[in-house]
Amino acid sequence: MGNQKADYVWFNGKLVRWEEAKVHVLTHAFNYGTAAFEGIRAYPYNGEMYIFRLKDHLERLQNSCKIYGFNLNYTLEQLIDACIELIKANKLHERTYIRPLVYVAGVGVGIGFSGQPTGVAIAAVPFDTYFSSDGGVHAMVSSWRRISEESLPPSAKIAGHYANSVLAKMHALENGYGEAIMLDSKGNVSEGTGENIFIVKEKRLITPPLSSGILEGITRKTVIQLAQEEGMEVVEREVTRVELYTSEEAFFTGTAAEITPILSVDKKQIGNGKPGSITRKMIELYGKAVIGKIEGHEDWVTPVYKLEEKSKKMGAKATPIS
Ligand code: PMP
To answer: Which of 5, 55, 61, 74 is the most buried if burial means most Cβ atoms within 10 Å?
Structure first.
């Protein structure tokens, strides 16, 4: 975990100083994990900041709230504006992570939360790469299985669900690995603790389906789309543990992790132990996508400072961002 900080947090409709963004220890969400959240990235480019797939992330937040019955008292537009306002207030011009969180805000003891208010907090902090190792990550298959639909809905991004990821992640770190890969309840590959997973076999990209208990990642969706547009075949199907070991390439996808090559699994080298050509191609395309440089997908990014519009308003010829 990083110790990044910023000046302001957007807290229930207002910008408050970092130190003031606090809740009571008996808050329902703090005790029972009843919070829905998102992880979003913003990227600097040519003086501008671009938030990547902001609307998609906030729609997933709305869905997480719907699944658990949390009232979200702000519209999509209000949340979009809040994220923009927050980056501006913190004068962020570097790689940034945005964390919106909707939490059950009642204070007291008891599991039921009907009638309790919900709160919304959005933090934005400078955030560079998620995995520190260079070139990729060494992963292990965890003995902790990924949560399944039988007990918790994996497609909802809920704070309490992350106890599962924390167990697997800590087990991996304590054993000298960079990341854990969790299997689903049937024993097929599900995902990392905060990332989806892709493997390459005979030049095709293969990724586990929603029925393998994954969180439907926005980076995953982006990679599928970019690969297909490059003419690559992408298959969503169950992946066995052994297929993972014998894959030609493998990588994680996630907002924080971006696209991270998997160099080995359970000490078995993947491919030649270096990021493969398809992985490198996807990293290159993703790097363009996040700053609005993929033709036809410019709308994936939301400019924060709106430099182009400002210069237009001032009567000047808009400066191309490229
Ligand atoms: N799975 C889990 C468990 C995650 O926490 C994340 C990160 N949000 C992902 C997958 C990847 O999702 P995304 O690409 O939308 O960040």
So the answer is: 61
233's CB contacts (< 8 A; 6+ apart) are: 203, 204, 205
CA distance from start to end of the chain: 34
What residue type is 27 in one-letter code? T
Name the token pair of 154: 């994996």
Per the structure, the count of domains in the chain is 2
> What pLDDT tens digit does each residue of the chain (322 aa) get?
566 899 999 999 999 999 999 999 999 999 999 999 999 999 999 999 999 999 999 999 999 999 999 999 999 999 999 999 999 999 999 999 999 999 999 999 999 999 999 999 999 999 999 998 679 999 999 999 999 999 999 999 999 999 999 999 999 999 999 999 999 999 999 999 999 999 999 999 999 999 999 999 999 999 999 999 999 999 999 999 999 999 999 999 999 999 999 999 999 999 999 999 999 999 999 999 999 999 999 999 999 998 877 777 776 554 444 3
β-bridge pairing 35-37 and 179-183: unpaired
Is there a single domain that holds both residue 191 and residue 215? yes
List the domain range (segments joined by +) for residue 39. Answer: 8-128
What's the CATH code of the domain at 43?
A: 3.30.470.10
Q: Which of 98, 164, 184, 255 gets mutated to test ligand 1 (max ligand atoms within 8 A of its CB)?
A: 255
The answer to whether position 286 is within a domain reads yes
Is the same domain home to 114 and 147?
Answer: no
Q: Which two tokens stand for residue 238?
A: 């169950």
Backbone conformation region of residue 296, classed left if phi is above 0, alpha if psi is from -120 to 50, else beta: left
**Residue 157 a catalytic site member:** yes
Instruction: For residue 218, report the distance from its CA to the centre of ligand 1, in Å.
Output: 7
Q: Is 76 exposed, middle or buried (0-12, 13-18, 19+ CB in 10 A)?
A: middle
- Report how far ligand 1's centroid is from the alpha carbon of 38 (Å): 9
Nearest ligand 1 atom to the CA of 256 is 16
**Residue 310 maps to a domain:** no
Q: Looking at the domain assignment, is residue 308 inside a domain?
A: no
Determine which residue's CA is closest to atom 4 belonging to ligand 1: 194
